[in-house]
Each structure stands twice: as C-alpha cells, then as structure tokens.
Amino acid sequence: MFPPEVRRRPRTLSDFRLFLSRLPLPGPLLDNCQGRDYSCTAMRHTLTRGIRSRHHAPSARGFVTVLCFGLWLSLVCASVPARATTDSAKAAAATADTTSSPQATAPVPVPKPQKIMIVGDSFAVGLGITMGQSLRAQKGVALSSRGKVSSGLNSPRFYDWEKALNDFLAAERPQNLVVMLGGNDAKNGPGTAEWGQDYAAKAKRLLDIAAAYGAKVFWVGLPPMREKAFSQRAWVANQAVRSACLAAKDCRFIDSWDLFADAAGNFCTKKPVGGKNKALRGKDGVHFTPTGCKLLTDRIASGLSAPSP
C-alpha cells in the first residue's frame, strides 16, 4: 500500500511530515494550511495530537482514519480562497456595473422658468399687481414688471421707450413681453388718421426691438374711456397697434374693449363678475379697480397659454 521507505510507522512530527511528503498527494498537506481557518486548525490538531504523545503511538487503522480526514480537510481549505476570490470578483463586477450605468449617475435636468415681462404706462403698472394671481395656475413662471407712469411713445424726452426696452430685454431676456401703452398718447394726441399711421410706425419700432431678442409680444389694447373724445382717440390708437401686430412675426393683439364696455360698446363703470355687479373702473374714468385689473390679467394669462394662431 505504501512505498517501502514510508512503511515504518511515524512516531514524531518530523517523521509524519516526511511521510506525507512522499505520498502521491496534490501537495504538502500541512503546508497548504495557513492556520487562519478553523478547518485547517482542526486538521493540524487532529494530525499531530497522536504523534506528540510520548506513551501512545497511532495504530494503523487510526493512522489511516486520520490520514483520510486530513486529506478531506486539506481540500476544504484549498477551496475556501477560491470561493472567496469568486465572490469578490462578482461583487466588484456588480459595483462596476452600478457606477458605470448612465441612468444611475445622470443628473435630472431642471427646467428653466418661463420669463414674462410687463412694460408700458400706468395701465401696465396695474397689470403688474394682479398678473401674478392670474398666472398662479401656471408653474415655472418668472414675472417682472417695468411700467412707467405718464410715459408713452410720443414723449421720448420724458421717457425713451425704445432705449428702455432694449436695456430691459438685454438684461433679462424674457420669452414673453406684455405691452400696454398708449393711454397718455391717446389723451394728448389729435387722433387723426395721419396720427394713427405715425403711431403704428412707432409701435413697429418697438416690436422690432422685441423681435431682435426673440421675445414674443402680447400687446394689450386700451379700454373705452368715460370722456367720449378720449375714448375715440383710444380706439384709433388700438387700430394702429393692431395693424402693427398683424404685420409683425411674433405679436398678438389682446383686445380689452369688450371687457369694460356695455352692450353698445361704450364706457361702463360696473359689470357682473362672479355673479355680482362690481366696479371695474376708477373714479377718474380711466384706470382700473383691482377687480378690473384682475379681470384683464386673467384674459392676458389665457392669451399667454393659448397656441399661436
């Protein structure tokens, strides 16, 4: 069964190591065991406890049993590092897949707010007060108001709207521009056909500035006034601006006349709003009450969200 040189029964640890090294095994049995694993420690203890005894020597049957048990434990010890290496490789591969996945690391894009700017005279100042309420249902909106009281297109010495609008658009870059101008111009102007043509040309220059910055314009028309002559000139100004908007690329004219007029198209102070008769115009017969402003900005907000014709 054993080679002749190892048939002598080993009695010391050195004899036992020499015995194992001369057997046809995959490698030195005890050298594969580093002493770190419980199975390896048990194997070392089992194989050597009988040899270290001074008074008892292992029998042939016991020796074979110990040898078989030691061989089995050596195979178990050898397989532990392999399994650990395989598990480590799988864990590293899973980590690499997770970190390299573009879905796991890609940031969620945050949409930019839609910028809306309001410009014009004192009418525009009033719109800036209630426009935020009218746009409350629309998410992602940034609103700015740049109205100037007593200003107009016919008084550049007092306030140059062409220069001011260019500065505003260059600084803020709004996508939408709400304009309500002309009340002071209509009040102080002659309201003739020639005057209307000249006013349309001035409105066109303002629209050209907005187009240069890619801003879409929503020009709000004037309401009827208590003074009939003033109301007639406001109508002429509306027609001039309407024609300028029709000739422009990105301009929509928002009519306000019907909101503040009676069935005959004339000025009225009160109208039913929400089932109640409420005042829409101020005591001066020109400007709006807060209810009137909100009524108009609700229409403007609907025009802002409506698709282009």
Description:
- The chain has two domains: 4-105, no CATH class; 114-305, 3-Layer(aba) Sandwich (Rossmann fold), CATH 3.40.50.
- With 309 residues, it is an alpha/beta fold.
- Helices cover 50% and strands 12% of the residues.
- The N and C termini lie far apart (103 Å).
- The chain contains ten helices and seven strands.
- Indicate the mean pLDDT: 80
Structural domain count: 2
Order of helices and strands: HHHHEHEHEHHEHEEEH
CATH hierarchy: architecture of the largest domain:
3-Layer(aba) Sandwich
Number of helical elements: 10
Cα shape:
globular
Radius of gyration: 47 Å
End-to-end Cα distance, whole Å, is 103 Å
Strand order across the biggest sheet?
Answer: 2-1-3-4-5
CATH domain topology of the largest domain: Rossmann fold
Low-pLDDT residue spans = 25-44, 46-58
Helix content: 40-55%
The first-level CATH class of the largest domain is given as: Alpha Beta
